[in-house]
Every structure is written in C-alpha cells, then in structure tokens.
C-alpha cells in the first residue's frame, strides 16, 4: 500500500509538488473532492456512525422519529356537565354529575335511575283487633277440624303478645326477611331463637291469609317445620365437625361402594349375555318371506352376520353322547400316557446330563446336612435359654456370603398386597420395619406378616361372596 492510498483512506489532500519537475505525474484528485454536494442532515442516527457509511446508500430508510403523539383532531364540541340533584329516598336528596346543560335538565330533583331496583317484599300489616280476630278464628277452626282448616303450629306459644308480633313484622319489613339480620337486631326483652321467630312469622301469615283467601293453593307453603329445621342444622354441624380421618374413611367407603357397583353391573351384564345365549329364537314374525330361495339366502346371510347372540353353529346330524364320551376317555388316556412317557424321558436325560457342577452341589448339600445333624447332636444338651444367651443357633439353609442386615430378609409382597399389609401394621401401631431387628423380633414379625396376608386373602374372598349374595337378592 502506497502513501497515496493512505491519504485517500484518511481523506487528506496531498500537497502539489514543484511544477519544474515535469517527470512527476500530475496529482490525483479523489472522488470526494470532485463532488462536494452538501449532505442532508439525518436524524435518528449518530453523526459518526453515518459518516462511516461514506457515499454508499444506507440499506434502510431513515425517517425522523417523533417523541410525542400527534395532537388529536376532534370535530365535536365538548358537551356541558351539570351537578344535578336526585331523590335517594323520601327523606334524602343527593347530587351527582349529569351530562347536559342546566336548562335541559332543570332544577327540580328527579327520581334516581336505580329506584326501579329498590323493591321491597309485601308483608301484611294489621291492627290489634284484626290480629285477635283471625287468630281466634284459626284456633276455632283447628278445634272443629273443618275441611279447609290449617294444621296448628306444633309449638304455639301463648307468650306472644300483639306488640311483640308487630315488632317482629316491622323488622321483617325493614330487612326484607333476612332472618340472620332480623335475629341479630331482635331486642324486645325476650330471648328468641331464629327458629321461633320464623315459626311465629309464618304461622301468623298463614292465619292471616286463611281468613282472606282460604282456597289459595299456596297456603301449605307457609307451614314452617321447626323440628326439621333444628335437626337439619344439627346434622350440618356434625357434618362440618368431621375430622380428616373420618373424611378419608368416608371417601374410601365411597370408592369401595363404587367398586361393588361396577362388579354388580359386570355380573348383571354377564348374566344377560348368558340368558341371551340360552334364549330361544322369537317365532312371532311371519315365515312367508323366507319360503322362496331368495328369502332363504337372506336369512342365511343374516344368521351368519348376527354376532350379538354369539350362538355356536350346531351340526345338523345329532351326535351319540356315549360315543362322544368314549372318544373323550380315549383321548385323555392317550394324553396321560404321552405325559408319562415324556416325564420318563426327561428324567433319563437329566440323569445323563448331570454335570460336574451339579454333582458338587449335591455333595455340598449332603455335607451341609451332615454338619447340621452333628451340630444338633452337640447342642442337644443345651436348653433354649442357654442357646439364646450364648447366641448359638443352627442354620439348616445355605447362608448368603458376606455381611447382611436382618431387616433385609423381611418378606416382601406385591405392591397391591404390600400397601394393605402396611395399612394393617399402621392400624396396629407398628412400623413396616422393626426398630430393633433382633432374631426373635424378626421371627415374630414374619409370623405376623403371614397372619396378616392370610387375613387379607380371607377378607377378599368374603367381600366377593357378599357381593355375589347381594346380587342374587
């Protein structure tokens, strides 16, 4: 690279040499000096980064970025708002902002738009004379047991006066029969339960409407069963007071009941399929359509394609049952003879194919048996307590080489049976593996596991028999 190339890269003009030197070439003029057009000012990119591009056109279009949104252009004029008044109720006026001018809305307070939702229950009102009259009429009708009589309340207390009944009805009108609120606000000097308040209210309403319209079909709906309501609350309280163990037990019983239902449904389906197989064909239809050859071919095809009955195609020629039994006996005798011959052949081949290793194992077993007998002969003068204190025991089986833990020799079962055994041990307050796995503890633990597996198997058979018995009923 020459010095002129470096000057071109750095955009530096070379100084012209003396004109007297005619042999020197004329100075080269760079392209940047020839075209000195003013560069447009670009925003959105740093000046140093843009200068690095040179005369090349940038690969992307650079547009000026605005930091603020455009001013919204609206053609509609802002509407006025007025702080107008409205009637919250008969005794209270409030104000709120309403869209519109004051001339359009007016100065008079209007009803609130939510007043249509302010709906109250229509509870009857009566004077003291009316109350005494319809209550006396109802009592007389109960004594006479007329046709349109209403059953009297089971707990019709006589200590209810008109003033207390009127106070109760006023609370019912004020709180729209929200009984928990009514019972909380009730303060007449006498302690009343919620059931007593509801019973008295509905009883008075029933007597009132009997005098007004005795043939109304809705009158029985005003009968409030106080005893049933108390019993329902007690039951709900017991239900909510259950412990986690009781809830888990209930869920387990529900799962078991569903299993029994599925087993019963399966048994019923099998019984229906068996009855369908034993059922005779229906002969109610006419056979005239099968008299022709075409009808017979259709019947034959339909019988072949009918797989719902699962009938076996019986041969047209009846068989002799005695001959069939004789053939069966002969076949069984032949199979038994073949099995005996095969067994004899396998014994002969096994005797011939005994290897040296098998012979060594047999000799080791015979030697181990002899050593066991000799050890028992040596220890026959020791009592069990002495053997236990000395830690001496005789192993008849072959022991595994190396050191092992007694807990690793505890019997293991299948996962389904193992979970039941563990659950039974937890009910007995025992762990799956003993804390101190001594020899005696392991022996007792093995005996307990055998008894538990026997009990689980017996319970399984008992549940199956109970299910079959319930299905037959």
Automatic annotation (TrEMBL):
GO cellular component terms given for this protein: NuA4 histone acetyltransferase complex; Swr1 complex
One record GO biological process: DNA repair
Transmembrane intervals: none
Residues of the DAMP1 SANT/Myb-like domain: 113-207
Residue ranges, compositional bias (Low complexity): 29-39
Signal peptide location: none
Superkingdom of the organism of origin: Eukaryota
GO molecular function terms listed in the Swiss-Prot or TrEMBL record: transcription corepressor activity
Compositionally biased region (Polar residues): 1-21
One matching Pfam family: SANT_DAMP1_like
Residue numbers spanned by region Disordered: 1-43, 138-157, 303-324, 336-359
Entry annotated with the keyword Transcription: yes
Cell compartments where the protein resides: Nucleus
Main location: nucleus
Protein family membership: Belongs to the SWC4 family.
Role according to the record: Component of the SWR1 complex which mediates the ATP-dependent exchange of histone H2A for the H2A variant HZT1 leading to transcriptional regulation of selected genes by chromatin remodeling. Component of the NuA4 histone acetyltransferase complex which is involved in transcriptional activation of selected genes principally by acetylation of nucleosomal histone H4 and H2A. The NuA4 complex is also involved in DNA repair.
Protein name listed in UniProt: SWR1-complex protein 4
Source organism of this protein record: Zygosaccharomyces mellis
């Amino acid at each position: 690279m020459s010095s002129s190339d470096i000057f071109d890269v750095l955009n530096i003009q070379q100084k012209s040499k003396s004109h007297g030197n005619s042999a020197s070439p004329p100075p080269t003029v760079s392209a940047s000096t020839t075209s000195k057009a003013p560069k447009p000012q670009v925003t959105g990119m740093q000046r140093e980064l843009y200068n690095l591009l040179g005369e090349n056109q940038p690969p992307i279009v650079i547009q000026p970025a605005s930091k603020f949104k455009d001013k919204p252009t609206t053609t509609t004029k802002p509407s006025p708002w007025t702080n107008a008044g409205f009637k919250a109720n008969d005794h209270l006026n409030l104000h709120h902002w309403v869209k519109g001018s004051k001339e359009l809305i007016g100065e008079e307070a209007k009803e609130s738009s939510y007043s249509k939702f302010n709906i109250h229950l229509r509870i009857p009102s009566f004077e003291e004379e009316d109350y005494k009259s319809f209550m006396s009429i109802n009592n007389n009708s109960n004594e006479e047991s007329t046709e349109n009589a209403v059953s009297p309340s089971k707990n019709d207390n006589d200590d209810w006066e008109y003033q207390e009944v009127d106070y109760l009805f006023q609370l019912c009108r004020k709180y729209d029969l929200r009984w928990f609120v009514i019972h909380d606000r009730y303060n007449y000097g006498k302690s009343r339960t919620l059931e007593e308040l509801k019973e008295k209210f509905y009883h008075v309403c029933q007597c009132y409407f009997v005098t007004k319209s005795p043939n109304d079909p809705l009158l029985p709906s005003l009968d409030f069963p106080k005893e049933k309501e108390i019993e329902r609350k007690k039951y709900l309280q017991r239900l909510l007071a259950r412990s986690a163990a009781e809830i888990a037990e209930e869920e387990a019983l529900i799962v078991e009941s569903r299993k029994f239902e599925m087993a019963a449904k399966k048994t019923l389906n099998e019984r229906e399929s068996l009855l369908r197989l034993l059922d005779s064909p229906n002969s109610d239809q006419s056979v005239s359509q099968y008299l022709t050859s075409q009808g017979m071919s259709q019947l034959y095809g339909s019988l072949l394609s009918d797989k719902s009955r699962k009938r076996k195609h019986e041969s047209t020629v009846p068989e002799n049952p005695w001959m069939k039994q004789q053939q069966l006996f002969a076949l069984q005798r032949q199979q038994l003879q073949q099995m005996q011959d095969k067994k004899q052949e396998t014994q002969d081949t096994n005797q011939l194919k005994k290897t040296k290793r098998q012979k060594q194992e047999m000799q080791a077993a015979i030697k181990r048996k002899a050593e066991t007998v000799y050890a028992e002969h040596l220890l026959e003068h020791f009592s069990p307590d002495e053997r236990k204190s000395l830690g001496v025991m005789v192993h008849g089986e072959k022991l595994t080489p190396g050191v092992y833990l007694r807990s690793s020799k505890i019997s293991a079962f299948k996962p389904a049976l193992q979970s039941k055994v563990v659950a039974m041990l937890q009910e007995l307050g025992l762990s799956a593996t003993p804390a101190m796995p001594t020899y005696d503890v392991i022996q007792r633990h093995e005996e307990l596991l055998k008894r538990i597996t026997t009990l689980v198997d017996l319970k399984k058979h008992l549940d199956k028999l109970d299910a079959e018995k319930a299905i037959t009923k």
